[in-house]
Specification:
With 437 residues, the chain is of the alpha+beta class. The protein is built from 16 helices and eight strands. It is elongated and about 125 Å long. GO terms for molecular function: mechanosensitive monoatomic ion channel activity. Keywords: Cell inner membrane, Cell membrane, Membrane, Stress response, Transmembrane, Transmembrane helix. It comes from Parapedobacter composti.
Length: 437
């Protein structure tokens, strides 16, 4: 009944316009075409008025209300243009009702034009829902539990699903066939689809595994030398992970490589609140020796070593007395060495350093001697994990130790420089000259 009323009214409007043009002198052969253009012009005017009213009244007023509202979600709707996409739907919906009126003289055009408007409506609704989901994503990012989650990956999957459904609907509209026929055809071409969407499927699976296993979060410092990545993760998408390196370059890594390849995540260090120092001082082996009583007495003046030297010397003297060691030969019995005392000094210096964590591993150890001398390794953690501060703390410690090492009669190993070689040659030449004379 409603369709009949609309059809009758459409024919009435068309006939009145057609008759008016005939009375104005338009020929009957041209009256149909002129009527079409006249009604199209009137439709454009109506749609322009509707679009203006919707944009100015609805969109602008609601946007102002959203800015004044204490709620944050409505601000996200405005920022993601959800209202704008909704406003674009209104003229399309209005135009559907005017199509039978405008094309009454050309009824064969009504179906194709209606399909075209319906297709525009489908994509308009997709864009509206896309803006809504983006607003939901931005809203979740403000929540503490979602700030480091790969929300972009999930949003991309939803977008792909929406466009896939929209494509099926459009296919059904254009061909007039059931959507199930299209899905059946896709089933037959599943191998081709798997090949085309291989990266998307791998990225989707990898994103789920990354989120489920909490392997990487936005803001994590990761290191992946194979792909030149060493910096903070700034974005996790369905297909890629973006890493801002310390030199401010951007490295893009496929998401599924985080599953198939190994990488280092420094989040544990940052959460623990301690950053490791693991560096050695190479001691020249020829400078290692026993200490004399005079040297020990001199080293007692180092305040942090005074209690240790006193206790250690008493222990050594007691042992040597009990064993009857012949002290005329230093090898007999027990003695203090300059490298052993220096190692104890490093340990006590680190123990009293205010920026070294005492509740984490702290040790000073000897490593296996090499051609570059005897390595004395410092293994400890700073209380500040910031890169610049960490480097300052480590540099200050080694500045002090390299300056203090000479007081223990030790030398740091270093390869001879060109000046050293020239000095040896000059000394040798001078010695030969003296022998000749």
């Amino acid at each position: 009944m409603e369709v009949q009323i609309i059809t009758d009214s459409s024919n009435l409007i068309y006939q009145q316009t057609h008759g008016l043009l005939m009375r104005w002198g338009v020929s009957e052969a041209q009256a149909d075409l002129v009527t079409l253009f006249v009604l199209l012009g009137l439709l454009m005017v109506v749609l322009g008025i509707v679009d203006f009213v919707v944009r100015k009244v609805l969109v602008d007023l609601l946007s102002r209300a959203a800015r004044k509202s204490p709620l944050k979600f409505d601000d996200l709707l405005v920022r993601n243009k959800a209202l704008v996409h909704f406003a674009r739907l209104v003229p399309l919906i209005v135009s559907i009702h005017f199509i039978p009126v405008v094309f009454s003289g050309f009824p064969e055009w009504i179906g194709p034009v209606r399909k075209f408007i319906d297709i525009l409506l489908v994509f308009g609704w997709v864009m509206l829902f896309r803006a809504l989901f983006r607003s939901v994503r931005d809203h979740l990012r403000t929540k503490k539990g979602f700030q480091d989650k790969p929300l972009d990956s999930y949003l991309q999957v939803i977008n792909i699903f929406m466009f896939f459904i929209a494509g099926i609907v459009v296919f059904s509209m254009v061909t007039g066939k059931s959507p199930w026929a299209f899905l059946g055809a896709l089933g037959a071409a599943s191998a081709i689809l798997m090949l085309v969407f291989k990266d998307t499927i791998l990225g989707f699976v990898a994103s789920i595994q990354v989120a489920t296993n909490d392997m990487v979060r936005v803001g994590d410092w990761i290191e992946m030398p194979k792909y030149g990545a060493d910096g903070d993760v700034i974005e996790i998408n369905l297909n890629t992970v973006k890493v801002q390196n310390w030199d401010k370059t951007i490295t893009t890594i496929p998401t599924y490589y985080l599953i198939t390849d190994s990488f280092k995540n420094w989040r544990g260090m940052q959460n623990a609140g301690g950053r490791r120092i693991k560096r050695s001082i190479n001691i020249k082996i020829s400078s290692i020796r026993y200490l004399t009583q005079e040297e020990i007495a001199d080293l007692r003046k180092i305040q942090i070593l005074t209690p240790y030297i006193a206790g250690r010397q008493a222990e050594i003297d007691q042992y040597n007395a009990q064993t009857g060691a012949d002290r005329s030969m230093p090898v007999n019995g027990r003695n203090m060495t300059n490298v052993g005392l220096f190692r104890q000094y490093i340990n006590r210096y680190a123990q009293q350093h205010p920026l070294i964590r005492k509740d984490m591993t702290l040790l000073v150890r000897q490593l296996q001697p090499t051609a570059q001398g005897l390595p004395i390794e410092l293994y400890m953690f700073t209380s500040d994990t910031r890169w610049a501060v960490y480097e300052d703390i480590m540099s200050d410690i080694f500045d002090h130790l390299l300056a203090a090492i000479k007081y223990f009669g030790l030398e740091v190993f270093e390869a001879p420089a060109s000046d050293d070689v020239r000095s040896l040659r000059l000394s040798a030449s001078a010695g030969e000259a003296v022998q000749v004379n």
